[in-house]
Design a protein that fits this description.
- The structure holds 2 protein chains of 2 kinds.
- By secondary structure, chain A is mainly beta.
- Helix content of chain A is about 0%, strand content about 55%.
- Chain A has strands spanning about 5, 10-15, 20-25, 30-40, 40-50, 55, 65-70, 75-80, 85-95, 105, 110-114.
- In chain A, the strands form 2 sheets. In chain A, strands 2, 4, 5, 6, 9, 10 and 11 form a 7-stranded mixed β-sheet that branches. A 4-stranded antiparallel β-sheet of chain A has the order 1-3-8-7, with no helix packed on it.
- In chain A, a hairpin with a 5-residue loop joins strand 7 and strand 8 (about 75-80).
- In chain B, strands 2, 4, 5, 9, 10 and 11 form a 6-stranded mixed β-sheet that branches. In chain B, strands 1-3-8-7-6 form a 5-stranded antiparallel β-sheet, with no helix packed on it.
- The model of chain B has no long low-confidence stretch (mean pLDDT about 95).
- By secondary structure, chain B is mainly β.
- Chain B has strands at about 5, 10-15, 20-25, 30-40, 45-50, 55-60, 60-65, 70-75, 85-95, 100, 105-110.
- Chain B is globular and about 40 Å long.
- Classes of the chains: A mainly beta, B mainly beta.
- At the A-B interface, strand 4, strand 5 and strand 10 of A face strand 4, strand 5, strand 9 and strand 10 of B.
Chain lengths: ~110, ~110
């Protein structure tokens, strides 16, 4: 079965702009989580969605937002981009979202803010 | 606040020998622990996990050990193979729909 897909794979934006990233989970998976990966920081949890509802959120400013659609596809949006937002953004899907359920990651979207 | 820490950013090991990766955590409420492996330009892939009610879980060449009193987790890879060269992330969860990850350890297996 097809894996988690993320679009676009690469993105270059300017400070102050906004960006929308997209994630399509594995068919049948209803939980989608988003993570930010920066060098030396590992993966930082952004938020998790299940059946269009956000169930948990990490410690990121309100400029970071997300949503999930009825087909489980998810988008995340970052407004008023800052240089520090340059990172790899990873999306992961699972059946349920609980830590005991394996999460499957997409290849990520590499965002560069100049 | 980094609740999961991997204090060794890198590890170099000879092919055929054992690789030992370490992970420490601060939240005693974590009830599930996982290891992920990541190659460049790919997303992390699940490797092995362990519930807090166990102290060891084995899957082929990979064994995870959990020491709850020390809040310490380790991953043993025996024997190490060139294809094991990757970044390894330790993660922990509370079943609250969120995983906390360490910063990762880059493993290089030398021929």
């Amino acid at each position: 079965k097809a894996g988690v897909t993320q679009t676009p794979r690469y993105l270059i934006k300017t400070r102050g702009q906004q960006v929308t990233l997209s994630c399509s989970p594995i068919s049948g998976h209803r939980s989608v989580s988003w993570y930010q990966q920066t060098p030396g920081q590992g993966l930082q949890f952004l938020f998790e969605y299940f059946s269009e509802t956000q169930r948990n959120k990490g410690n990121f400013p309100g400029r970071f937002s997300g949503r999930q659609f009825s087909n489980s596809r998810s988008e995340m949006n970052v407004s008023t981009l800052e240089l520090g937002d340059s990172a790899l953004y990873l999306c992961a899907s699972s059946l349920d979202g609980r830590s005991s359920y394996e999460q499957y990651f997409g290849p990520g979207t590499r965002l560069t803010v100049t | 606040d980094q609740q999961v820490k991997q204090n060794s950013p890198s590890l170099s090991v000879q092919e055929g020998r054992i690789s030992i990766l370490n992970c420490d955590y601060t939240n005693s409420m974590f009830d599930y622990f996982l290891w992920y492996k990541k190659y460049p330009a790919e997303g992390p892939t699940f490797l092995i996990s362990i519930s807090s009610i166990k102290d060891k879980n084995e899957d082929g060449r990979f064994t995870v050990f959990l020491n709850k009193s020390a809040k310490h987790l380790s991953l043993h890879i025996v024997p190490s193979q060139p294809g094991d060269s990757a970044v390894y992330f330790c993660a922990a969860g509370l079943n609250d729909y969120k995983l906390s990850f360490g910063a990762g350890t880059t493993v290089t297996v030398r021929a």
